[in-house]
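A protein record pairs a chain with a discrete description of its three-dimensional fold. The shape at a given residue is found from the number at the same position. Here is what such a record looks like in full:
>
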Amino acid sequence: MHGLLFIVIILATFFIMEGITWLTHRYIMHGFLWYLHQDHHQKGPGFFEKNDAFFLIFAIPGWLCIMFGLQYKLYAVAAIGFGITMYGFAYFVVHEVIIHQRFKWFTRSNNTYIRTIRWAHKMHHKHLNKYEGESFGMLFVAKKYWQKAKADKLRNAR
């Protein structure tokens, strides 16, 4: 497989994962697997959540694609696995480190994109049950959240 095609497949998979994540979050995590996701919306004591199980649910397909793709020289499959894994890493950094700050690696940012994704996620978490949710994505958020973050940034600059 040509190296450029390998990279294209990785990047395409990465971006497709945002749609898969949105669908999974909306219809599975806020659907029949709510019992795993509920403690993420209704935080209890302790560091770990049942919701952390989704790490494995998403990591296993990426790992299997990489392992079998490399083992059987199915490089397109391996590239898909690398794309899934890259998205998982981005999800970890954005969701766990930047948004929820479960790991205190970065201080709060005045960056408009970071403020926007944090605002969108805050609107998602204002719903404490599995119904009436909004903003189920992670990396790409609706225009209204960009507008809100920019307005907040201007207000705070005064």
Q: What stands out?
A: The chain has a mean pLDDT of 93. Helices lie at 3-32, 34-41, 53-71, 75-99, 112-125, 143-157.
